[in-house]
Each structure stands twice: as structure tokens, then as C-alpha cells.
């Protein structure tokens, strides 16, 4: 018996070691898509250029579609994408009184704290409440613009990156699904005739099947040795198929965004023309983002993703795509055009990069210290299951939740679902960049990933130049979701007595 146990343990160890080796590699097909790495010379040259000639709404004003005489409601307008939409609307000449931000929190971005952006109306709203959403949309407008047609940009959402159980789906469903339905309904009642929604490139991601049969791990049959879905293309093919069951999404977030996307696109009609933008995985462009800002916020960043290849997209590029879509849908006959009632993926106008490029950029250019702590992916996978079990135990059995402490910090997000967005994910602008006459959006990105990420570090350094040893605290979309969840739980507790 001891011998048999020893053999089993040895075989299991060999299996896990081999799996770990594969998870630390990049398939040849993916490597060919990103053959070069960022160098110090390239980073320093780009830094000097972005420092001397930063990209501002004024510098790319010619890329913003021309001004339309319309009113605007931007749900989530305090956030990354919504904030850039507001700034671009102002840049092209829309007066502040013709824009309304509907969000859970007021804007706290530095670039929205002064000038015309600071004059934009803000209505604090929980979109999971139909009554609150209607009230925000019904608020009277300045008489000078009250009769103008209305566009709604719906960018509000909560991002919970790794929860996948239906036991905890309610939060994502309330904001991302029910909230979207509330926004669509309120838009109709308010007389809006254009609605463009931000969804997510993560909708198309299939759960990565890490634990493959042992014989496949040593296969010489090309790609057959890799875990299934270890690299994927972010596209919209799934939209033209029946909605997948919940378990075929890697987490609750993409499942909820897929349902929300169907709601928006199904609402397309002559009276309310609709469409969706799917940003590629990893939206960045402000210290509040999870991609670049998340790295800058850490002196030591534990990671197992340095070799991972992904497409990223700057918030400026995502916002421009929304305005491109609006320009098409503003035409009264656009409901029957091929662009209406469907999503488009957008990304930066360059090949994908690796996370090692991002980490090297931060390490090379940031005034704050930064280094990575390399972790074993298999060890992290094995840890993720008991963390998920523990979290769900507290939810499934409330009395246990009162006895056991809640997990906090980054560890609460270390669950199996997170590994599906920590694999190779490649997106393309091919469809969105087609001319409008050919069914596309005519989209072209303003910044490359190199330019966008370097500019974010330039801005970070400017904010930290006097105290380089300390870090300012920014609220990311993930931490905001935690705040909203706590507020919702407190409200539920009060309502329950």
C-alpha cells in the first residue's frame, strides 16, 4: 500500500509539474502575433514624446466624429470609458448643459475636475432601481436644449472578475442585467432615439479547461498538448448564436454582460436605434484602471502572467468607437442598417503585447519602485479552489458566514474563474474598422498601446514627483464594485428590519 501511494503521489507530481511548464509557455501561434518586445530605448523615446506632446482631446479632435445637435445621458459617466465620452462630447462642441452623468458616484478623475467637464450635470443613481433610473432620466433639462434629440451612452456596470457561481450571481445580475433593462426602459420613456452600450470582449471567452487528460500533456501533436481554450480570439461570433448557458462563461461578469448585450441589441427599432461596443480584455487609460493603474499601485506585484499575450484598449479609443457608432445610428433610417442591433469588438491599433512589456514599462519609467514576484501558476490554481469553496460556504450557510471572517484584498479574487482571463487573448479591429458603407464603424484608434500606457505613466509620475516613495490611492472599477456590493448589502439589511 505505501508503495502504491508513493507511485500515485509521484505521478500526480509529474502531472502538475508538466502542466505548470505548459502554463508558463506561449504557443507558437500566439508568439508569432507579437514577435518584438519593448526596449528601454523605445520606452524612453516614447516617454519624452508623450511628455512633450501628450495626447489630449484637443490633439485628436479631428478624429472625434463631428458635433451633433443632441442631448446626452452617460450612465457610468464618472468612470473610465464614460468619462472619456463626456470629455470628447465637450471637445467637439456639445455644451455642458446638454450632458448628464448618471452614476453611483460623482466624477473624481483629475481631468474632469475643472473646465467644462466640472459643469456637467451629475445625478447620483443606482441603476438597479427602475424608479431611481427613471427619475434620473426624467430630470428637466435646460430649456435651451430640452427639445433636442436624446442619445444615451450606457457604460455603467460592476466588474467582479472571478466569481462564477450562481449563488453569487445576483449582484452582477442586478446591476448589469436588470440595470441595463432599466436604462433601456427609461431611455424609451425619455424619448431617446439612440442608445450605445459598453459590453465586454470577455463575453466571448470560454472557460479554460486546465486539467487535461495526462496523456495529452506529453502529446507531440502540435497544439493538442495545451489546455483547451488556453488561447482565444475575442470576436462576436457568439452573438449570432443562441446565448450560452451560464456555466459556459468563465464568470458571472461576462454572463451578465452577455445577457445585457442581448437586451440592448433586441431593443433596436426605428424609434430607438441601438448597438454595443465590446472593448478588448484590459481597458486602461487612467490611474483608476485595473491594468496599468493596478500595476503602478504596487511596489511588489505577485504574478504568473508575464508571458501572457493579450490585446488591450485605451479608454480614449473605446469612447471614440461609441461616438462612431452614434454617428451611424443618429440617422433615422439606421435601424435596418447592418451595424444596428449588434456588437463590435474594438482594441488598440497595434498587435497584442505581453504582460512582461507592461511590467518592464512600469519598472523602467515609473518614479515609484516596482518589481514583480513570479508565482507558479499551478500552485495558484490549486489555491484558488479552497478559496472559492470557503467564500461560497459563507454564502450558502449564513450562520457560517457569521462565524468565519470574510476574505479581503486581492486574495478574495483568487478563484478558478480568474485564470480564464489570465490566458492568451487576442482581439482584432477588422470588423469595426471597415468603412461604414461596408457595414463597419469606420473605427481607427487614436493611441497605440505603447503610447497609451506610457502616457499613463507620465501622468502618474507627475502626480508622484514630489513624493516618489508614496502612492496615491485610486478607486478602481473592482474596488468600486466592492463598495457598491457593501452598500447594497447594507440597504438590504435595513430593509429587512
UniProtKB/TrEMBL annotation:
UniProt keywords, alphabetically: Oxidoreductase, Signal
Presence of keyword Repressor: no
GO terms assigned for molecular function: oxidoreductase activity, acting on the CH-OH group of donors, NAD or NADP as acceptor
Keyword Signal belongs to the record: yes
Signal peptide: 1-19
One annotated GO biological process: steroid biosynthetic process
InterPro entries: 3Beta_OHSteriod_DH/Estase, Lipid_A_modif_metabolic_enz, NAD(P)-bd_dom_sf
Every 3-beta hydroxysteroid dehydrogenase/isomerase domain range: 73-201, 244-361
UniProt cross-references to Gene3D superfamilies, sorted A to Z: NAD(P)-binding Rossmann-like Domain
Family membership: Belongs to the 3-beta-HSD family.
Full protein name: 3-beta hydroxysteroid dehydrogenase/isomerase domain-containing protein
